[in-house]
Amino acid sequence: MNRVKGKTVLITGASSGIGLSCANIFASQGAKLVLLARREKRLEKVKKKLEEDYKVEVRIFQVDVCNREDVINWSEKLEKEGIEPDVLINNAGLASGLSKLHEGDFADWDRMIDTNLKGFLNISRVILPKMVEKNSGHVVNIGSIAGHMVYPAGNVYCATKFAVRALNEAMNIDLYGTNVKVSSIDPGAVETEFSRVRFKGDLKRAEKVYEGFTPLKAEDIADAVFYVVNTPEHVNIQDLVIMPTAQRNPYLLYREGQEQN
Ligand code: NDP
Ligand code: 8X3
Hints:
By secondary structure, this protein is of the alpha/beta class. It has one domain (about 10-245): NAD(P)-binding Rossmann-like Domain (Rossmann fold). The protein is built from 8 helices and 11 strands. The protein has helices at about 15-30, 40-55, 70-80, 105-135, 155-175, 195-200, 205-210, 220-230, and strands spanning about 10, 30-35, 60, 85-90, 135-140, 180-185, 190, 215, 240, 245-250, 250-255. Helix 1 (about 15-30) packs parallel to helix 2. The chain is globular, with a radius of gyration of 18 Å. It starts with 7 loop residues before the first strand and ends in an 8-residue tail after the last strand. NADPH dihydro-nicotinamide-adenine-dinucleotide phosphate binds near residues 142 and 193. NADPH dihydro-nicotinamide-adenine-dinucleotide phosphate binds next to helix 1, strand 2, helix 4 and helix 6.
């Protein structure tokens, strides 16, 4: 049964990876889309393709989730245009660098905290009130296994994902008594632009992350997001951990041809 047809799905970070795959699957099922990211050209291409392929309505907005003023202005624009998201996929996020805490880079820390934590809060704060007012809606937070277990040199990134997990729980508690659902999808290693971003364009280093095993694909996570959103109204999947079969925790990863942990 398709429960998303005709619904409005807002996806942050829809210009690549998991967000882009979510846009694809929801468009293929007849949802209307509102897509956010900083790279506008990419969003324009996504819009064109999805509208051609699936004949659905796609609105795109160049918004940096870290910029609170821009987020507030954008949300007022949405309201003026009568766009009321039924589903919010809080996906925009990144890792920046991989260093021991005592060797960490302040700018990397700010980027991660501003995006994964403050950006997440900025978007949630402007979108949730309408859902509460209407007593319906669904927020899907993209967490990580990094929010369940800290790994070496993962310090601040892991801390932001632990925070997302805490906020997923907090939203569920604060929305007690409403019909607004809140879910977290927490993936292990997914091959996207994530590692390219983490290692600042060092493609060789990024590719090494996915060597010797089959990582998750962005589509695997999008399938799970769709499943969670498509559940009946009385079902709320609060947390879903998804790992590649080769990976059993953040650093227990079986790589063929390599000495094992
Ligand atoms: P990608 O780098 O492929 O995608 C990240 C998306 O976030 C891009 O669309 C990017 O768009 C957007 N984004 C980043 N910063 C901002 C910002 N300030 N404002 C608006 N959009 C922003 O990585 P993934 O698809 O892998 O990452 C998506 C989410 O999944 C993240 O929250 C990540 O932490 C999480 N995750 C990823 C895992 C993995 O192994 N890949 C595993 C577990 C969780 P643009 O640059 O155009 O703004
Ligand atoms: C992204 C996956 O293992 O690099 O959240 O933290 S990991």
